[in-house]
Amino acid sequence: PRFLIDGTQFGGFTLPMKDGAVDETQGDDDPQACVVPFEAMPQAVNPTQGYVFTANNDPGKLTESGSVADDDWYIGGPWSSVRAHTIQRELQGHVDAGTADTSAMSEIQGNHDSRLGEVFAPHFVAAITTANEMASEPGGSPADMRAAALYGPESAVLDEIATRMSAWLAAGAPASSGVETFYHQPGGGDAEHAVATMVFNAAFARLLSKVFDDEPLGDVWLYSGSRMKVRALRKFLEGRSPTNESNLASWDPSTGESAFFDIYSTPEVERSQEILLSAMVDAVVFLRTPPEAPGVGGFGSEDMSTWLWGLRHQARFESLLAAFLAGDPSFGFLVDLFSVTTEQLPLAEQMTPDDPRAGLKWFPRPGDQWCVDASNPGFSGTQFTHGNGPVMRMVIALKDGAVSGVNILPGGQSGLTDSEHFSDQLKLWLANETIPLRYHLDDVIEGAISRELLSPELDGGAP
Predict the structure, then answer these.
(1) Strand ranges of the sheet holding 21-22, from the earlier edge strand across to the other edge
(2) Which residues pair with 315 in a beta bridge?
């Protein structure tokens, strides 16, 4: 459709529906025919829950039917609901408790719970627990024996992972960094949660790959491939049953689960139990391997306590020039000049060469895929840094005729590399801290750090 780009509505325009499909002919002669009538736009006036929220989610329950094409107007879509669901959950909690103030909103913006961990980590734990039980009862089906063969050599480390993941889930699956820096001091189980986060993300990427990458699917994914795969995988795992109670189209009556769990290229018919275990074992093998470079690859250690998420999951503050000059070493200095790295903002003072933080170019951060404090590492399973995130963390309060609030930028307000304001706000941004939003004149004067007097030039050149 002419007014839609990648499912996103632009300029207030969209297209009407006809016979269950977008009618692309309506705007040919009369562009105004594509303007959504005001009464048809999703809107809320004094909603009963006391708030509205948005985070790339369905703005008006348009897809509750499972389709984006069965309404009178095509507003957009598909949407991503994970971050919005977290925001709604946290908002409702603060509304119920009567604590929905500026600091609470900032807290929600910094939420880094692993929603994928909440959904999928229990399946890893269950697979390990079942394998542990099977180990004491030899025999079983061929699939059971293959699962036992995967579990046996790694039983100690897998049992430790199950224990760590269970504790992580009990704490709400916080995707903690676990790395001490000038902007973060781990505490309250952060290091333990960071290990569970690292193992989960390494294993989950491999699980996705094992389930889908061996299938000759081509361009079956209509929208975002990663989102559609995760959604399908959740249905596959939750739909395992002897009678296909979830009505899975891919349900195999011989296994009682989706046929996608079978590895297409092998003669055996694999089951979800062994796919979950093999993904976890492959993740462990990867995490044990020596690092390829600082912050890249495995940890080169059998000691799981060293597998900290923040040592691999880092925020990159690369210059926009990197996209244009990538791969050209002659311009590397120019890219680095406009980037912000640990050269400008060292993570800590007096690090020894054997310190795992030494040599890191970027900044350890909490969070993982689709958390509120956006820090998506993707699903490669080997590269976990992210170059996108909140461009500001703004909270505005309106009360008694006054405007107050806070904000912070990931960098600074100046594009001049020699300015003190080029990267001065990054220290606060990394710590999820903010500065006052100075809206009223008195606030501006109080917070001013310098002043400039501007006046018109008079005749004769004298001001």
Answers:
(1) 21-22, 15-18, 73-74
(2) 363, 386
pLDDT tens per residue across all 463 residues of the chain: 222 222 333 233 345 556 655 555 555 566 555 677 788 888 888 999 889 998 988 888 887 777 777 777 778 777 888 999 999 999 999 999 999 999 999 999 999 999 999 999 999 999 999 999 888 887 788 888 999 999 999 999 999 999 999 999 999 999 999 999 999 999 989 999 999 999 999 999 999 999 999 887 766 666 667 888 898 999 999 999 999 999 999 999 999 999 999 998 899 999 999 999 999 999 999 999 999 999 999 999 999 999 999 999 999 998 877 777 766 777 766 777 889 999 999 999 989 999 999 999 999 999 999 999 999 999 999 999 999 999 999 999 999 999 999 999 998 888 888 898 999 999 999 999 999 999 999 999 999 988 888 888 766 555 5
Give the separation between CA 253 and CA 242, rounded to whole angstroms. Answer: 7
Q: How many CB atoms lie within 10 A of CB 74?
A: 25
SS3 of the chain: the string is CCCEECCEECCCECEEEECCEECCCCCCCCHHHHECCHHHCCCCCCCCCCCCCCCCCCCCCCCCCCCCCCCCEECCCCCCCHHHHHHHHHHHHHHHHCCCCHHHHHHHHCCCECHHHHHHHHHHHHHHHHHHHHHCCCCCCHHHHHHHHHHHHHHHHHHHHHHHHHHHHHCCCECCCCCCECCECCCCCHHHHHHHHHHHHHHHHHHHHHHHCCCCCCCCCCCCHHHHHHHHHHHHHHCCCCCCCCCCCCEECCCCEEHHHCCCCCCCCCCHHHHHHHHHHHHHHHHHCCEEECCEECCCCCCHHHCCHHHCCEECECCCCHHHHCCCHHHHHHHHHCCECCCCCCCCCCCCCCCCCCCCCCEECCCCCCCCCCCCCCCCCCCCCECCCCCCCCEEEEECCEEEEEECCCCCCCCCCCCCCCCCCHHHHHCCCCEECCCCHHHHHHHCCCCCCCCCCCHHHCC
pTM of the model: 0.88
Tokens of 175: 């995707």
Closest CA relative to residue 278, chosen from 341, 362, 206: 206
339: which residues sit within 8 A by CB, 6+ positions away? 317, 318, 319, 322
Residue at token pair 């079956």: 220
Name which of 8, 26, 31 is nearest 72 in CA terms: 26
